[in-house]
Each structure stands twice: as structure tokens, then as C-alpha cells.
Fold:
Amino acid sequence: MKIEMEFKGLQELVKAFEAVASDEEIQKTNKVIVEKSEPVVKEIMSRKIPKSADTSKSGRGFGSKSNVSAHAADSVPVGKVQVKETSASAEVGWDKSDKSEHFYVKFINWGTIYQPPREFIYATGREADGELQKIAEEEYQAFLDRTVG
Structure:
């Protein structure tokens, strides 16, 4: 699931960064920010996913296709960083079309006709927001310190 993050309170820093950086430097810095953010998001999401006491019982109740080797919380997928123009992004977690061994997590997050959603994907984004802003601020400031002095 892709979560769009908009950094508030960093506008002045971002404007200063964009004023002195080339498109290539902006792209490279944004890629570093995403790479540093992925483990933060993964760790927060991991804490929010329910775990059974016994791994062999994980995902049970979602049909015979659910035969997992580890808890979903311990197997949060992290996608490769995608770069487009000056922006960078990566997917952490599952989406509704997931067919991996932890496909059942989408039913936990979005719910079914039998159980209400235990929404944790967007909650992860909300919780991670402050830490991701801090990472972005540090990277933009480090770039400015190196180039402007």
C-alpha cells in the first residue's frame, strides 16, 4: 500500500533546498529519504499487525491457501524504491491485490463481511509521519550544509 506523505512545517527548508539543488540532486536526496524511511514504516507496521501465539495458526480462517512460514508481522514486504522525475516512493506492506503467503493480512486490514476492518496500514502512515518528517528535514538540511555552508 502506498501512503502519500506531505511534509508540513518544512516548506521553507524545502524551498531553500529546491532553490540550490539540481533535479538530479533532488532526486538523489529524495531517494535517500525514502530508503531511510522504509525500515521505520516497516517496524511501526510490524507492531500493529495482530500475531497468533502459534505461527501454524496464522491466517487460519482464511481458507486452505493460508499456510505460512512466519507471522505476517515478521514478514512485512518492502518494495524497491521507485524514482520518477524528482520524486521517490516505495511500497511497504500489502495491497488489496496481494497473493503472497500473507494474503490474509488484507482481510484483517480492510475487513470482510464477517469481521470489521482492523485498519493498520493508514494508521502506520499517521504514526510514522513525525519520524519521516524528521528524516526528510535532516537530509535536506545536510544537503544545504554541504552545498551552501
